[in-house]
Write a structure and sequence with these properties.
The protein is α/β, with parallel strands linked by helices. Helix content is 22%, strand content 23%. A 6-stranded mixed β-sheet has the order 2-5-8-11-14-15. Strands 1-4-7-10-13 form a 5-stranded parallel β-sheet, with no helix packed on it. The chain has a 4-stranded parallel β-sheet with strand order 3-6-9-12, with no helix packed on it.
Length: 183
């Protein structure tokens, strides 16, 4: 996210994927970047000096360029290029290079986009909680998880027995006493 020559506003609950670029323009027009609430900008996408409404999804490696506006709930398909100054109406699916209207999204698809944005928020909360732990806590939790993973009700140690057999102090892991070949 780079707002060096103009402003960038990012709404609540929006996510910007790995290697995505959000930038502004000053040289070829004076354009800030505005990103609404619960917007998903996928990995490798670029939003350059554009406006995205609420609930917008910008697919992987897609580009939304200078002065373009993407309306609420619209979806830009992966690898598409929304050219400078283009207006994408609310609730539409756009794709291609240059991007064109493909169709109107169904209410179910728009709801799915919103649900996806909330799933990302939940994942971010879990990620934050995990990274707030100190090293000692992480190691203790991993050790406990490893022990629990390898234990079952049948493997619970019983007093004076090993794996259901009577306890023999010379028996090593149920394999007999060291050095004994026969029983």
């Amino acid at each position: 996210v780079r707002g060096d020559v103009n402003s960038v506003n990012i709404g609540e609950g929006s996510s910007i994927g790995d290697r995505a670029v959000v930038h502004v323009a000053k040289i070829q027009g004076d354009h800030a970047t505005s990103i609404g609430n619960h917007v998903t900008i996928a990995s490798g996408a670029m939003v350059h000096a554009a406006s995205l409404g609420n609930g917008v999804v910008v697919g992987e490696s897609a580009q939304v360029l200078d002065g373009a506006t993407v309306g609420d709930g619209a979806v830009v398909e992966p690898a598409s290029i929304v050219t400078a100054g283009t207006k994408v109406p609310s609730g539409e699916l756009w794709g291609g290079a240059p991007a064109k209207k493909i169709r109107v999204l169904t209410e179910e698809e728009i709801a799915q986009s919103k649900a996806s944005a909330f799933e990302i928020i939940e994942l971010a909360s879990q990620h934050e909680a995990e990274h707030a732990k100190d090293y000692k806590t992480v190691v203790e939790e991993e050790e406990e998880e490893d022990i629990m993973e390898h234990m079952s009700d049948d493997a619970t140690p019983k007093p004076n027995s090993y794996m259901g057999k009577p306890y023999d102090p010379e028996d090593v892991l149920g394999q007999g006493a060291p050095g004994r070949i026969f029983r």
